[in-house]
């Protein structure tokens, strides 16, 4: 799964594939709001197992009636190698480790107030997230994120000029407000490292 495929999926270039992925993901998340993850996993496993067992029995009956010797209907999939190579595991674990180390370093910098302005921004973000957490649980945020991932890119693609115009206006106003606050409150201006 590469980045180009994900972009194609989120921009709905292939409507059928995007619809299936979006529908299946949304169905999974909505079912997790109603049942536990153990129940949902069990139901999905039972559904897949029911389909494969029925297909295997159907093909067995067809082979018996037609007196053919086609073999196991899932032979192609049973012969495929599904094991992960050590190189692949090392590659992805190295990426995860690098991101983890970067995150820990950044959190240390924020919590130990290396830069007052960045730590105050982080504090405001945490304060806002307390309100978000009071309104939504994590699963609801995942659902909203999924719907946003599949709808925002296509909306932005259609209305790019208007959105860029209003985002530019808002960004300028936010920069002006930050500059005003930093000039009026002592200690909030950034100190340039020498």
UniProtKB/TrEMBL annotation:
The chain crosses the membrane at residues 20-49, 124-150. Keywords: Endoplasmic reticulum, Membrane, Transmembrane, Transmembrane helix. It holds the Pfam family Reticulon. Residues 6-194 form the Reticulon domain. PROSITE patterns: RETICULON. InterPro entries: Reticulon, RTN1-4. Its main location: endoplasmic reticulum. Coiled coil: none annotated. One of its GO terms (biological process) is neuron differentiation. It is a multi-pass membrane protein. GO terms for cellular component: endoplasmic reticulum membrane; neuron projection; postsynaptic density. It is found in: Endoplasmic reticulum membrane. This is Reticulon. It comes from Oncorhynchus tshawytscha (Chinook salmon).
């Amino acid at each position: 799964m590469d980045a180009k495929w994900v972009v194609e999926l989120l921009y709905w270039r292939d409507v059928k594939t995007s619809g299936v992925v979006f529908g299946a993901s949304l169905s999974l998340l909505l079912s997790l709001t109603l049942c536990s993850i153990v129940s949902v996993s069990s139901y999905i496993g039972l559904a897949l197992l029911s389909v494969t067992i029925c297909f295997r029995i159907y093909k067995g009956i067809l082979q018996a009636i037609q007196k053919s010797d086609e073999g196991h209907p899932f032979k192609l999939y049973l012969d495929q190698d599904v094991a992960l190579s050590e190189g692949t595991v090392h590659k992805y674990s190295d990426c995860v480790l690098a991101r983890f180390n970067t995150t820990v370093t950044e959190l240390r910098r924020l919590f130990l107030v290396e830069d007052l302005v960045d730590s105050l921004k982080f504090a405001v973000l945490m304060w806002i997230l307390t309100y978000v957490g009071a309104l939504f649980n994590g699963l609801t945020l995942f659902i909203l994120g999924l719907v946003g991932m599949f709808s925002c890119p296509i909306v932005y693609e259609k209305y790019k000029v208007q959105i860029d115009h209003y985002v530019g206006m808002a960004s300028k106003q936010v920069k002006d407000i930050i500059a005003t606050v930093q000039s009026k409150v002592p200690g909030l201006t950034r100190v340039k490292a020498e």
